[in-house]
Amino acid sequence: MAARKDGIPRPATAAGEQPGWAQELLEHLRPAGRDVRRVVDWLAGTVHGSVALRDDTGTLVAGTGPALDENLVADVTSGRIASAAWEDGERHLRLVQVGHLSRTWALAVSRDTPFDRHSAVVVTHTAQVIELLLTAGETTAAGQRLRRASADLRLAILQLLMVEDTVAARRVAAGLWPGLLEADTACVYVVESEPARRDRLAEEALDTTEEAALVVRCPAMDGHVIVVSPREATADDLKSLVERHPDTFLGGSVRKSLARTATAYGQAVSALAVARFRPDKTAVYAERTHPERLMDPTALRGWTARLLCPLDAVPHHTRAELLATTRLGLEFTAVNTAKILGVSRNTVRARMERVENMLGTDFDDLTARAVVHLALHTQFNLQDGQAGSALEASVPGLAHLVSGPAVRAWAGELLERLDQDARPLRRTLRTWIAAGGNAERAAQLLGVHAQTVREHVRSAEPVLERQLPAAGTDLYEVVLAHLALGDLETPVFAGPVATSPPG
């Protein structure tokens, strides 16, 4: 065997040409043919015998060789001897050591006829090829384990950021990706593609950003890759990635503090709804006018404190846990929220049911979900300790908050966009919301087919520039617009302190 530049032995004839069996053996080193079991089967056919490959525990890995002296096999796999040959009745056997990183395996070959020079050479070189394949396989497996471990750590960091535990997130990231989360602010991006192409896009995103960003395969949406980055250049990096791939879209958030990663993620997902209709397939969340910014901040703060007051009865850490879970649970399904938080979906449902019971409401009602979402969002964004008089009798209800001229003007402008379509999009959307987002129930109320309802709701998305079928901030703002114009009934909360309806 002559040496090749790549380190793979090259069998050669006296004339310098490879014999036929050597050509066949080398074919097993091609990427498409790297299978130890196939090599073992090939050897059995080539030497007209039976072959078995055993690992260092004596376990049969490939082939169907004869029974062997276990002590002799142990001597080979332990490295005490490199090979052995003997006769057992009418059978001729050979045992060859196969070195493999930190482990040693044994290749056993049995024939009816004695081993001649040709068959001995074939066995020896086949053992070398098997060694190369085992080493390559172990290296590949180790690389895969490392990539999985890195992916799991990146997901853990994202989960910590989503529940506002930035201290722990930085601690986890510091050891492997120094400087990744040193900045106080970052943008969140979501790359959307077909689930089958998601892994490839994630790897390309890692390469494109040079690991200067947190790249995570979304645990909730199979086609999403989430990127958290403090670098301005990341947006251009990801845009170039989207340009290279068809049917791939990019949504980005505005810059937010790390503690508000969950909010930024919601913005990026919302931007995706717009990106799907853009020629360049990308969109950045526009800092549009949010309804809560048009309300009296003092009244809004007091109303929020009054609505959420029942939760003050539980210990602080439990309250924080319930609120964090509910905030995400109102944005995603229970299953997806569980994946994001790293808990079971039963835990998510139990926590949200507890909040439902304490507030005296039903989260199957989209208006109730929108109102609680408003309260949680307000509490998170107005954490300034100014709610001391929240429970006074003068605290206004929701109806007062959403009936102001500014809010009504915003709501009118938003929903009037739907009137430009010849189809009754606005009526369908209002009925769909009242039916809890259920197309079948809405269809029964409207006297149309459920598919018609779904088509109208999807058609409303680009007009409103908001994602509707998936519950989240976009949908809840549309619900609040309907409440402001009196197109939907204000939900009633029956919590312990709700002496009067908050609306």
Description:
With 503 residues, this protein is of the alpha+beta class. 50% of the residues lie in helices and 13% in strands. It is built from 19 helices and 13 strands. The protein has helices at 20-27, 36-47, 70-77, 117-162, 166-176, 198-208, 233-244, 261-275, 297-308, 316-329, 334-341, 345-359, 366-381, 398-402, 405-416, 425-434, 439-446, 450-464, 473-484, and strands at residues 2-3, 9-10, 49-54, 60-63, 83-88, 91-100, 103-111, 185-192, 214-217, 224-229, 249-252, 256-257, 282-284. The strands form 3 sheets. Strands 8, 9, 10, 11, 12 and 13 form a 6-stranded mixed β-sheet that branches. A hairpin with a 2-residue loop joins strand 5 (83-88) and strand 6 (91-100). Helix 6 packs antiparallel against helix 7 and helix 13 (366-381) crosses helix 19 (473-484). The longest helix is centred in the N-terminal third of the chain and has 46 residues, at 117-162. The protein starts with a strand and ends in a 19-residue tail after the last helix. It holds the Pfam family HTH_30. It comes from Streptomyces incanus.
Task: Describe the secondary structure blueprint for this structure.
Layout: E1 2-3, E2 9-10, H1 20-27, H2 36-47, E3 49-54, E4 60-63, H3 70-77, E5 83-88, E6 91-100, E7 103-111, H4 117-162, H5 166-176, E8 185-192, H6 198-208, E9 214-217, E10 224-229, H7 233-244, E11 249-252, E12 256-257, H8 261-275, E13 282-284, H9 297-308, H10 316-329, H11 334-341, H12 345-359, H13 366-381, H14 398-402, H15 405-416, H16 425-434, H17 439-446, H18 450-464, H19 473-484
Helix pairs in contact: 2-4, 4-5, 6-7, 9-13, 10-12, 11-12, 13-19, 15-19, 16-17, 16-18, 17-18
